[in-house]
Write a structure and sequence with these properties.
CATH architecture: 6 Propeller
Strand order of the largest sheet: 4-5-6-7
Radius of gyration: 18 Å
Oligomer: single chain
CATH superfamily: TolB, C-terminal domain
Mean pLDDT: 86
Helix content: under 10%
Strand content: over 45%
Number of helices: 1
Structural class: mainly beta
CATH class: Mainly Beta
Number of domains: 1
Order of helices and strands: HEEEEEEEEEEEEEEEEEEEEEEE
CATH topology: Neuraminidase
Number of strands: 23
Shape: globular
């Protein structure tokens, strides 16, 4: 995978420890309940969670090319080597962040201010959105192309719609219900991921559905990297990493975050 450049984020490491981490594939970044952002290495069944140098965050989203995180009244845009690119001041308490590819796919939904933020390649651009047209609560956001972003919105009755918004005008272009998709749903690459009474459902664009057994029904999702999602259940205190590609879906348990002041 890519992401090996993220090894430079890990500080205060012995040379032997650092060499061991570089030898393992980088999975991505996971935000834990104490808000710490940790680096995850390894393979399913043998993950290692390390205390990275990114500190804490209220929300994150990473691709293999960089990421967004919110902290202390700012949204920070980072390159793949954690070099800061830009920041945006906001009082938004619950931003919805998304980076799906290179940094021009960086998006942030600021619901309190009704603003959709995107990275133009040289600066953040904030576009007002008339979200009164939204049929419910936005749970996922992704770049469609240079001109449009797509939200997944959960309606009060539990159904889910995809809402297409212009990045130029903020206008809602379309709103289409997704048949069979229910509850809290997220988009990862071309897949729609949600949980129902059968388990964790993964729907591809052609309608094919894969179901993974997971009983927790209070899952939270954040993008760890281009191919990995972090899943967390507040009720059970369990963490998982989900890898998606065209051929397979792999779900594996994540270890707990390392103790503060220490490393795993």
């Amino acid at each position: 995978m890519k992401f090996y450049s993220f090894a430079s984020l890990l500080l205060l490491c012995s040379p032997a420890w650092l060499a061991a981490q570089i030898a393992a594939p980088m999975v991505g970044f996971a935000r834990y309940p104490d808000s710490s952002v940790e680096a995850v290495y390894g393979l399913p069944g043998n993950f290692v969670v390390t205390r990275a140098a990114l500190g804490t965050a209220g929300a994150i989203s990473f691709s293999d090319y960089g990421g967004l995180l919110s902290r202390s009244g700012k949204i920070l845009l980072l390159k793949a080597d954690a070099t800061p690119v830009a920041e945006y001041d906001t009082a938004e308490a619950s931003p919805l962040l998304s980076v799906t590819g290179d940094l021009t796919t960086a998006l942030a939904w600021l619901p309190a201010g009704h603003l959709l933020l995107h990275w133009s390649g040289s600066r953040f651009v904030a576009v007002p959105v008339d979200d009164a047209a939204f049929p419910g609560n936005a749970t996922s956001l992704s770049a469609v192309n240079a001109d449009h972003a797509a939200f997944l919105v959960t309606q009060p009755n539990g159904s889910v719609s995809q809402v297409l918004v212009s990045l130029t005008t903020g206008a809602v272009i379309s709103s289409d219900q997704l048949p069979g998709v229910r509850g809290f749903a997220v988009r990862q690459q071309s897949f729609t991921v949600f949980h129902d009474d059968r388990g964790l459902e993964i729907e591809s664009t052609n309608g094919n559905l894969r179901t993974l057994l997971i009983e927790a029904n209070d899952l939270c999702f954040e993008r760890m990297s281009s191919h990995w999602l972090h899943l967390y259940s507040p009720a059970t205190k369990q963490h998982w990493a989900l890898r998606l590609d065209a051929a397979d879906a792999t779900l594996a348990m994540l270890p707990a975050a390392p103790a503060k002041g220490g490393r795993q």
